[in-house]
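User: You have something folded?
Assistant:
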Amino acid sequence: MSARIESIVGRYLCTEITGAEQRVYFEEAGQGQPVLCLHTAGADARQWRHILNDAELTRDFRFIAFDMPWHGKSLPPAGFHTREYLLTTDDYIATVLAVLRGLDLQRPILAGCSMGGRIALQLAARHPDAFAGFVGIEASDFQPAWYDIDWFHRPDAHGGEMGAALVSANIAPQAPEVERWNTQWMFMQSGPGVFRGDLSFYTRDRSLIDRLGQIDTTRTPVYLLCGEYDLTCTPADTARTAGRIPGARYEIMSELGHFPMSEHPEAFRPYFARALKCIQDKGARRSNE
């Protein structure tokens, strides 16, 4: 293998979020329509590296993926050791909007997976004018935990390895082995209590259920994608959620699980490209009306 330098550029955004100074790490690549990408619970922006390295997609889209505070290269706020990390809908929304403002992104497409897909739908209901459209990947209105989230932050268990075990059950059997393990490695590196704090938001916050009817897809289109092997946000969950959003589109992705952009990027790519093109075309039609 010859040496090469990837086109992805990584930088830090220093901004205030919910009254605290934050140093948020983000990566970007490409040009054209901006697409802001959100990672899953307990992971970081590395999940999107294959999309950011896609030469064809980056000719038409500028992809930006950032590490949420407490995740990856984004440090927790000062004094984090004195508090319990529990993500909330309001804090999550404030974080996404702060990054959007800090990077001066004008109506990007928002693409989020798992908890990122959940918050994408919250933003579709509460802040639709800030975005050109939404791609919710493994996104549902609500899905209660079928596992005990406290196992991911205990003194007698390695939270990262416990998280990786849960993740492994949600990866499709067709995923290439190297990407299966790369995906699990991100969870093994998760900070103490971070996966649990994210899952508290994901498995206990039911507030989206009553907001789905507020989403107006004539203003900002919604496209949902779900892997057929996803045990956490099942195809039935996605179909139910899409059915409660008038005008939303959804696809069930063959041979993919809960982390499609990371576990099997080659299989995920055509679905994601189709969703982006659909949203882009709808935006062009509205501009011409």
